[in-house]
Design brief:
By secondary structure, the protein is of the alpha/beta class. The protein is built from eleven helices and ten strands.
Length: 331
């Protein structure tokens, strides 16, 4: 994302009819930095009823956060969907979709986790305070499988690296991050999808992520390079998913459906097909668009952006039930 940002809040950019004005606006704030937690780009004329969102590519690390990391060089590389926002930006431009990009890093807070998906073992709170926190958690205070593995709302550990932090977190810091980053991001996401749905009669969220190279699939099938997830049918109407999968296959991608990635909290919260708002998660293998070191954008960014844009157009056509000249307009 370039550095030319508007200081307008998202609420301040609504026009007289209640819809958001076109342009680049920012929202939320990153604790410890004078930077927005995310930016939302909506083209002057939205060409398709699609919002492309990137929750895990944030690279704005406050110095204090880096100082608390046990492995400040390796942790960001392991947690980030490294530079997949570059693919998203080009894809959104090609197909005329809206674009929401988080700048707060996943190491600070995971936007694809429920705000109550906590690992109580990483807090300095006393037993009474932890009991109060546990009472707010779902399932009677039982930690989720993800948080048990160290990948809850606040990542705690990674396989092969162990504990990520030098010291526990204070509960007040957790509350601050949720209020400054998580809540405004999801409010903006819901608001934009609502605006698109009101204008078009339906909306599609394409939640873009990246993944390490996967092993070969059973039966001798080549490893998947793209994984489209819809929470096993809960977050998106099947014809829309089929359109996306068909486009991926046509582009020569090794596409998989829901395995090993079916999506997470973002799809659970925002995908409501019966209300016209559909949501899918798309994972891209990082080796497709990063350099040989998997560190910087490589030569494959443009090709992957084209595939993502084509998939977005095909799914938008399935959503609206009509073909269009969007594909030609995107060229």
């Amino acid at each position: 994302m370039n550095d030319r940002r508007s200081d307008q809040s998202l609420d301040a950019t609504r026009g007289s009819n209640g819809t958001r004005a076109a342009g680049l606006v920012s929202g939320g704030s990153i604790p410890g930095l004078s930077r927005p937690a995310f930016t939302l780009q909506r083209p002057a004329a939205l060409q398709i009823p699609v919002l492309i969102a990137v929750p895990h590519a944030g690279r704005a690390y406050p110095p204090e956060l880096l100082a608390r990391m046990r492995f400040p060089d390796a942790t960001p590389l392991r947690l980030e969907d490294r530079f997949v926002d570059e693919v998203a930006r080009q894809a959104a431009t090609r197909c005329g979709a809206a674009l929401l990009v988080a700048h707060a890093p996943r190491a600070m807070i995971d936007l694809n986790r429920d705000p109550l998906d906590l690992d109580l073992g990483m807090f300095t709170a006393g037993e009474d305070e932890k009991k109060a926190m546990r009472l707010k958690m779902p399932q009677g205070g039982t930690q989720s499988a993800r948080s048990m593995r160290g990948l809850g709302l606040f990542p705690r550990r990674i396989s092969g690296m162990g504990e990520l932090w030098r010291a526990p977190m204070q509960p007040i810091e957790a509350s601050r991050r949720i209020a400054a980053v998580h809540s405004p991001y999801h409010d903006a996401l819901a608001g934009e999808l609502g605006d698109i749905c009101a204008a078009w009669g339906g909306a599609l969220l394409l939640d873009l992520h990246s993944m390490p190279d996967l092993p070969a699939r059973s039966g001798g099938l080549a490893p998947a390079t793209h994984v489209l997830g819809d929470r096993f049918g809960a977050s998106c109407a099947r014809p829309i998913v089929d359109a996306g999968l068909g486009t991926l296959h046509f582009a020569g991608a090794e596409a998989a459906y829901n395995r090993p990635y079916a999506g997470g909290y973002v799809l659970d919260r925002h995908g409501v097909p019966r209300r016209g708002i559909n949501a899918v998660q798309l994972e891209l293998a990082r080796s497709l668009y990063l350099d040989d070191r998997l560190d910087r954008p490589g030569d494959g960014v443009e090709a992957q952006a084209r595939i993502v844009a084509d998939a977005a157009i095909a799914m938008a056509e399935a959503l609206t039930g009509s073909e269009s000249d969007w594909a030609q307009a995107a060229e």
